[in-house]
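Blinded run. Sample ID left blank on purpose so nobody reads anything into the name before looking at the predicted structure. Input follows.
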Amino acid sequence: MATTGIASLTINEMREFAGFTGAEQRYIRRSLDIGLGRQDAFKLWARDADENAAIRSQYVAYQDLKVLRSAIPEETGFECVEAFIGKLTRVAAFDLAQERIDCFSAFRFLYERLLGPDVRPWLPSGFCAASALPQIKPGRRKMLLQSLSEAAATAPGWSDRPPVFFPEFIDEDAP
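Blinded prediction complete.
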């Protein structure tokens, strides 16, 4: 029975990922390679000098992920909130400014894999804070903020189940 449940969860996560745009899917896979140290992102993802520079910047921006993973505050207390949300907002703003993540669900999908399931209650605030920064173009800011549903923004509880599907690089030239 447990295997059936895991398979069902995996399929649901795969379906969710399939619903993202091609640019979102590519960025999520690249980000997971960088943020989780799975692959050499320069070899896999850099198609030109601009992407090489973007990957280098992303490696720098993602240096705080390890600190964020170990600093997720309790939902009930206010200790450590400032430091956590500040770092989360900065990293999230970097990702949103790349203009590859177009909605909250793609952002949530990426960040619950980068930081783990305990970050879920903090993702709407981090997303809103990052989306509202002046570094995000006004039209894009509006699109991002409108993608956060009322249900996600006001959820009374969050699953603590870890994600099971972690999309990986796909060689488009492979047979």
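Unblinding after everyone has recorded impressions. The longest helix spans residues 2-18.
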